[in-house]
């Protein structure tokens, strides 16, 4: 069975997929990673660069004996996936860049990286997790998947939040997009508050073999907001 590797984003973890990819489990051997400092590996020392996370994922997959795989990266995980496409490209069959972009620090970001660090230190991980997780859903705290998502985010220690912010602040892939040669699906919810259309359009129009899927009425967590549509679109693309 073909292996499908899922890489979560900032303040995420492998548990964020629980109950949302069951329809894909019968079609693919799913490997959902937990990056160092996040999710089930929250106790480990985090990494402060996107490239460093990509190298860690490669080593992790080698330790599991994974030789060829499809790859999906969500949000910060989509940045890591772009690096993986360049560093481990001969082993990646197809690529899904989900709710992500090619620039670590977005123009017009809602607050600076330093402000995000300061607020996290003042408010603490739990409050920060709920504040940020709410922005990932169209209906914020009222969304069905919010509590599960916020609970996973709350597992992230402050040191990992800071490391993730540092990793994104120093990263850009604009100059490398044309080197991503895998058949790629750029996947986005049209109400995403984190990544604007300009970032999605850049991926879609610059990666040579890119297709686009836009899901209406969703924000940053399409897999939790419209899981059936999420799985149908992924299945169609990967097959």
From TrEMBL:
Hydrolase as a keyword of this entry, yes or no, is yes
* InterPro entries with a match to the protein in the record: AB_hydrolase_1, AB_hydrolase_fold, AB_hydrolase_sf
Highest taxon above the source species? Bacteria
**Could you give a GO molecular-function term held by this entry?**
hydrolase activity
Record keywords, A-Z: Hydrolase
Q: Name one Pfam family in it.
A: Abhydrolase_1
What is the protein name stated in its UniProt record? Alpha/beta fold hydrolase
Q: Where is the AB hydrolase-1 domain?
A: 4-227
Query: Which species does this protein come from?
Result: Lutimaribacter marinistellae
């Amino acid at each position: 069975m073909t292996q499908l590797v899922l890489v979560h984003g900032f303040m995420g973890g492998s548990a964020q997929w629980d109950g949302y990819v069951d329809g894909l489990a019968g079609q693919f051997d799913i490997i959902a990673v937990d990056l160092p400092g996040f999710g089930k590996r929250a106790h480990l020392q985090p990494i402060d660069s996107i490239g460093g996370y990509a190298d860690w994922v490669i080593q992790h997959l080698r330790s599991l004996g994974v030789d060829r795989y499809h790859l999906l990266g969500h949000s910060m995980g989509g940045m890591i996936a772009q690096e993986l496409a360049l560093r481990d490209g001969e082993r990646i069959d197809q690529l899904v860049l989900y709710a992500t972009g090619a620039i670590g620090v977005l123009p017009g970001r809602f607050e600076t990286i330093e402000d995000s660090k300061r607020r996290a230190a003042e408010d603490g991980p739990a409050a920060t997790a709920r504040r940020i997780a709410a922005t990932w859903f169209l209906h914020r705290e009222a969304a069905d998947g919010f509590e599960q998502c916020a609970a996973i985010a709350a597992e992230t220690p402050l040191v990992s939040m800071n490391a993730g912010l540092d990793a994104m602040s120093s990263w850009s892939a604009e100059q490398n997009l044309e080197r991503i040669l895998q058949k790629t699906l750029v996947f986005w919810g049209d109400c995403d508050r984190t990544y604007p259309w300009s970032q999605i359009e850049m991926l879609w129009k610059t990666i040579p073999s890119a297709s686009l899927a836009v899901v209406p009425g969703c924000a940053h967590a399409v897999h939790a907001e419209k899981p059936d549509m999420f799985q149908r679109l992924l299945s169609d693309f990967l097959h």
